[in-house]
Write a structure and sequence with these properties.
alpha+beta; Beta-lactamase; two-stranded antiparallel sheet; 14 helices; 19% strand; globular; disordered N terminus; Beta-lactamase-related domain-containing protein; Beta-lactamase/esterase
Length: 425
């Protein structure tokens, strides 16, 4: 008779400030119950690091444990710092959301794009979710000028401004071309972020992970299978756009391509951000503080306030996500009894990544994992990992601040709209 399989001892490490111990307890519970297999969570509260924990495996088969300096891929959470780069250039007067993109990039006007404004582009309303011409994302590093011509030649896939569709990869490819033209030093978006934000504010986060640092990147694996048939049956967008996003670019078909060192190194601000959860939490904490950190300004209050305005909402044409977006950021409205609606902002990333800022409680948080759950894209209820720690974090904050009202976070626009409509009755 075979013996029952012995449960492997769990591994976790890190720091929690007194008052936040329950966040670690939840993380360990997730590890013990195979909800979590390897990841990291960090949070700042009122300018102070209060949680920085990691555990499980960076490579389960090789029994490589997660370490503090691991630099996981944040996938689309990278769009949050990319959106901040644009806001930084707006703050400095080099860009204007209301201006047409072709003012900065004349070739962009081709094929009916002459009236698309920067705001229309960053709010996912430009109709440029993908390109019809095949290209390789490697051009972002090897030949950005050639890539710029391909992007400029693309015609909108819907009437600009009339609808919205998530721009999974092209989002920051277009922004990179704009940054290269608007920045007086003609830097790429990746270089601009590194020099203007990462280095001055001590952020261990890079858009494109250099070869010499790739030993810190955990191996990416799929944690669950994805029911593609069910996804297609329930799809509420445009399937022809979905098909294009799935096959263009031709060298990034499948998220596990990020295990290729030549992909990890690419300076793509849509998907190739790598860093510690501590640094991504700090980045969002700076935004949660109103854009200023220890007397030094990252972004203006106006930019931070702009990030909290819903500009696109509901099921998008490209991915059929029932989300909410502002100026490049995802939005998560939060309701607490007796208070005005609050808007947390940041961005989720494929497989379960997250980075969020909260200006009300002055919080920045981040979660990353290399064990990807494809169902996490459907909303927080499908992936219990970061939401369980997020909810516990705010239970701790409520206790510290003696707040005794229920808290509800809206992940789907349909739920937010229903609540908003019912409040009017």
């Amino acid at each position: 008779m075979s013996q029952p399989r012995r449960k492997q001892p769990i591994y976790s490490d890190g720091f929690v400030k007194p008052g936040f111990e329950r966040v670690l307890e939840v993380f360990r519970y997730n590890l013990e119950n195979d909800i979590e297999r390897g990841g990291t969570f960090a949070a700042y509260y009122r300018g102070e690091l209060v949680v920085n924990i990691w555990g499980g495996y960076a490579d389960r088969k090789a029994r490589v444990k997660w370490k503090r300096d691991m630099m996981p891929c944040f996938y689309s959470t990278t769009k949050s710092p990319s959106a901040a780069v644009i806001a930084h250039l707006v703050d400095r007067g080099f860009l204007d959301y209301s201006e047409r993109v072709c003012k900065y990039w004349p070739d962009f006007a081709a094929n009916g794009k002459e009236d698309i404004t920067l705001e229309t582009l960053v709010t996912n309303r430009a109709g440029l979710s993908c390109t019809e011409e095949k290209f390789t994302v490697a051009l972002s590093k090897d030949d950005p000028e050639k890539l710029g011509k391909i992007l400029a030649n693309q015609k909108p896939l819907w009437k600009p401004g009339a609808n919205h569709g998530y721009h999974p990869i092209t989002f920051a490819l277009y922004l990179d071309q704009i940054v290269r033209r608007a920045d007086p030093l003609k830097r790429s978006l990746s270089q601009y972020f590194h020099e203007e934000m990462a280095v001055p504010f001590g952020l261990d986060f890079k858009i494109g992970l250099p070869y010499e640092e790739q030993y810190k990147a955990p191996r990416i694996v799929m944690m669950k299978s994805f029911d593609q048939q069910e996804y297609i049956q329930n799809f509420k967008g445009d399937l022809s756009i979905l098909q294009l996003t799935a096959t263009h670019p031709t060298d990034f078909i499948g998220v596990r391509r990020m295990n290729d060192p030549d992909v990890r190194v690419l300076p793509v601000g849509s998907i190739c951000g790598h860093g510690t959860a501590e640094s991504m939490a700090k980045f969002h904490a700076i935004l949660g503080e109103g854009g200023t950190w220890q007397g030094r300004q990252l972004l203006s209050k106006a930019s931070v306030e702009r990030f909290q305005q819903i500009k696109s909402a509901g099921f998008d044409l490209a991915f059929s996500m029932d989300g909410m977006w502002s100026y490049g950021m995802m939005l998560f409205p939060v309701k607490e009894q007796g208070k005005p609606m609050m808007f947390m902002f940041g961005h989720g990333g494929y497989g379960g990544q997250m980075g969020l800022a909260d200006t009300t409680y002055r919080v920045g948080l981040a979660y990353a994992t290399s064990h990807l759950d494809p169902t996490s894209r459907a909303g927080a209820d499908a992936d219990k990992r970061w939401p369980s720690m997020y909810n516990t974090l705010y239970e701790c904050i409520h206790q510290i601040e003696n707040v005794r009202v229920p808290r509800k976070t809206f992940y789907l626009y349909e739920d937010y709209k229903k609540d908003k409509d019912s409040s009017k009755l």
